[in-house]
């Protein structure tokens, strides 16, 4: 018996067409599914690769983007304020120059102007306060200017003006008369215990008024700094950019004046600056295009971006093309107050290098008075000895002596050239520190640096003014070549 054959039914043309359409739909669906799956696979693969790259390269990308942001910020270092800068001096009573000599406006008049123009705030960073005869136990009439300054400050609260003072510890309640008077008038005073924090002192001397005017220089809050001590500083008016940058240094002192304060490491970003020796402020000073920045010491008190004072000094010396003129009360390549004694030739080496390698002329004008340390003079003689008829090294040292009358001898810690500045053929530097290692390692100081070399044919730059002051003193009857000094123990004899 033959097996039964099963035949597939023959579809009609309509049924066949419907079948073909159905199969086509199935194929199209399968094709779309495959395409979607392929796209999803590609996307997943790309995302996986990106995630892997991010994990591997994220630190580099962050660093790169941060650096780019910093560069962008640093490029925006211009200041549109029409700033006015004035060189100011205190010339001690009895110190007289020849007719037509350069004489700058007085520190006293500068301080009185700042106080009269103040509308909102006065912030002062200071070493100590001795503005009256009572503090020095004297009855000298030249204390009148200091007493007038103190009275104007006591009146600030009545005018609706806040006064903040950051000051070094006095070490004795008997030395706090001025500070107590200020507190009683409503001033806020904070004692910054740098002896405990850095083993140094708060030696800086500057004012910030209304966040737009500043004074910085060698003068302490002392009546003698106005009439009995030779001082030099700078007052800058209507310069918000510069004043607010100096305010950041003051705020650092203010924070350190809190009870049980410690030095932050690092300092919060609010204390940082974009103005330094690499990216100085681009600003107009007396209608003259200028590059300006503020430096600070010691390094632990410098927030991000701030140039350390010693780095500022060294860079200015290294930048000089023709001359470096220095006028400071004390100069020694040592740490004056360290125990055991330490040699510190940092500045000394750069001066010798400038003379030897670049043939730069170096002149040092150093003070000699009853409180000069004898060990300073052999080091100065060593620098001066570099110059002789055969070496052709252009370096000289002179000693500046402020004349003193029998009456003036009774005034303690007076009759001295207290200047702390440097001027080169390119830069003016006005500081608050003596030039010894301690002042840059542990002691709080600050400085204003002005470079106006971008100005062509200008005859009234800060550099030119400061050079004129230096040459006036250098050529005066009060300056003496150091090798003519016969005695410096207790008094300066030539």
From TrEMBL:
What does the record give as EC number? 3.1.16.1
Q: Which InterPro entries match?
A: Diverse_PLD-related (IPR050874), PLDc_3 (IPR032803), PLipase_D/transphosphatidylase (IPR001736)
List membrane-spanning regions: 36-61
Look up keyword Ion transport and say if it applies: no
Where is the protein situated, by its record's location annotation? Answer: Early endosome membrane; Late endosome membrane; Lysosome lumen
Tell me the ranges covered by the PLD phosphodiesterase domain, including all copies. Answer: 198-225, 413-439
Q: Which SMART domains match?
A: PLDc
**Main subcellular location:** membrane
Keywords, A to Z, come to: Exonuclease, Hydrolase, Membrane, Nuclease, Repeat, Transmembrane, Transmembrane helix
SUPFAM superfamilies, per database record: Phospholipase D/nuclease
Q: Where does the source fall among the domains of life? A: Eukaryota
Reaction equations catalysed: Exonucleolytic cleavage in the 5'- to 3'-direction to yield nucleoside 3'-phosphates
**How is the protein disposed in the membrane?**
Single-pass type II membrane protein
Which family does this protein fall into? Belongs to the phospholipase D family.
The protein depicted here goes by the name: 5'-3' exonuclease PLD3
State the organism named in the record. Ranitomeya imitator (mimic poison frog)
